[in-house]
Structure formats: structure tokens, C-alpha cells
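Input/output pair, single chain:
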Amino acid sequence: MSTLNFALVNNTGSDTAYAYITGLAIDNNNALFLLQSDGKTAYYPTSPSSTITALAENCAISLGASGTTTTVTIPHLAGARLWFSRGATLSFYLNPGPALVEPSSSNPSDANYNVYWDFCEFTWNSAELFVNISMVDFFCLPIALALENTSGTTQTVEGLPSGALDTVCSALKTQNNTDGAGWDQLIITTGGANLRAVSPNTGITLNSSLFSTYFDSYVDQVWSKYTSETLTVDTQAAAGSLTATVSNGTLNFSSGSITYAQPTSAAIFSNSSGSFAVSGDSTKDAITARLAAAFNRSTLLIDTNQPDGEVVSNYYSNSITNHYARICHATALDGRGYAFPYDDVGPSGGVDQSGSVSDGSPKLLTVTVGGPLSSNSAKETTTKTTATKPSSQVNQKQGVLRNLKKLVRRLSRSK
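Output:
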């Protein structure tokens, strides 16, 4: 099977909604791919002579009236995204390469900045279809997933409910009233209405002083704890579990060559800078993913075994934590969804927290934008299963790829 159908459901409450599909065409030498507005014709852009060149084809797929379903057909794609907008179309551009200039949630001068838009991510190759919702950069429009395989089994991610943006923004304001850390600055408005809630990492991009010392006292406590206690990190890969202690202000692992200076708040929120920058050493990058997740969830003072000692109910229980991630998970109907880049890290055999579905024999992916139509009706017509966590090696690769993709997107957006 070289093509697959997606059913796109418009539940935004608006009759003006659009979808876009972008990625790399696996069966066409990984060429840059966009789906044209008819929902079935491929568009392979050629390299333009200048930056910020408009697309040569119309790639805005109209979703029709709210409550209706539009079916599209895709080829094998890697690093792909399914974008949605409400109330207006999105503008994509090309840079020489060709490189796709995507909509930005962190650039106020971007043509799409004041449009309601969001996306989910997927890869479909000869092995499987893997799809996840994402709030890593921001949250605007709720997205729900239902993946049916050829045996008739359906996996779901319920996502956030209709009206969730206002719920998230209200909770951010409440948290800021509690600690005054600046959580309300993650709320972006337009015309007096909530437009999106951005992640702390995106918020720091918009305001470099935001959260500059937020995690400092927590990091100090962690470093103090592991001066006299031993931290064990399971890489969930070939390297197995490694232990570490703090000496001379550095967290030193038993491998002898893997060390960490105290991470800054920016490094913790980004998962990919400073102490947590991608190193290219697969063992260290696996440890980095697990440390970054533990800091965002604030579990290092509770559990000396990461991530296998973690209990989901203890996530975000410290007053100093990634409250954006806490709020997003608390608002999600099933508690799942990527809220930071390594949100797929978890105990071996644990329930997926990242809001993903995957299957080696997919039949139909249904993606609903605007919140699930009805969880009750879905249960009547499908067999609902909770996705178990993908293998740790896959998680590690996906996390590294997400960080690398961020770098590529930053370069492609340069104007």
C-alpha cells in the first residue's frame, strides 16, 4: 500500500477552516512535499531563486462546514505535519533548497501570527504510521486522533476539549497569581480574545528575560541531594542503567565521560540547549532526554531512579515545575499530549503520556480539529485502546529528531 486515507473532521464551530499537509516524500527521494487543495494531488516545489517565495500551487484544503468530514490521500511521508487553521488560510513560503518556511508562533512579524492555527505530527513509512498531537511550541486548536487498523482495532488520543484554549489561559493566570513567575505572559491575544498559549520555551523566545532564574532553587536542591545520594538513570537502550553523583559542582555519570553542569531554566524548558544540547553521543543523549523530562516534571527530589522510579501521579507536584505542561495534561480529556520535547519519556512499559498512536497496518486515520465530536459515540462504534509507549529507542530518536527539526525550522524561517 503506497497511499493512505486521512479523514479530517471540522469541529471548530466555524465553516471556514483549512488543512495543509507537508513532509518529505519517502518514495520520491525525500523530496519536499505538500498536498494540493484537492486533497490528493502531490506538489513537489522546486528551489526558488530568492527567499520568501510564494508557493506555485494552492495547498489550502477546505474542510467545509463545521461538523463535516473531508477525506485526503497521502503517500509515504517522513517528518510530516498536518496543519489546521480556523477563520483564515495560512501562508507558506519557500527558500532556496527548496526549504519550506512554515508558520511561526514565536515571530510576531510572521504573516500567520494572528491566525488561529495548530498542527499534529506524523510519519508514515513501510513499517508503520506514527502520529502525535503536539503542544511543545504552543496550543491553540484542540486536535483528536483515532487510528483504525486493518483488524478493526482503534487507538485514540482524545486531546483537549472544545473551548480548551480559554481553560488553559485561565489556569496560567491562576498559576501566575500564585507564584508571580510570569505564566500569564505565555498568553497571546488578538482583539481581546485568547489566540494561543505558548510554551515556556516559546515564551522565552518572545521575551528573553522570562523565567531566567525560575528553576535555579530547584536545581540547587537536586545538586545538593545527589552530592550524598546516587542517581540512577535507565537509558532504556543498549547502555542500560548508569549511576551518577555530584562532585565539584558537576553531575558525573559512572561511564566516566558523561557529565552535566547545572542546567539553566532555559535549558530545562528547551530540552536542547546549554547542558541539555544534543551531543551526538547516543548514550548521553538518552540520559539528557530522561534528565530533561525529570526536571520539567520535577521528579528528581522524589525518585532516585529515573525514569523507572517515577509515578505519573507525582508529575508536576513540586511548586517549581513546568506548569504549562501540567496545565495542558490536566486539561486534556485523557491526560495525554506532548507539552515539552521529551514528554515521550516514561517508565518502561508505562502508559504513553505523549499523545501518540501508531500501527504497522493502518487502515484509516481520523483527525478531528476543535475537540472530539463525542467520546461517548466513539466508544459505541469502535474498540478503544490506550496506546502503550513506543520502544525507548524510538522515543530517543524521535526526541533528537524533534530538536533537530526545530533547528531546521529556525533556519528556514530566516527572512
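The chain has a mean pLDDT of 91. The domain at 3-160+352-412 is CATH 2.60.110.10 (Thaumatin).
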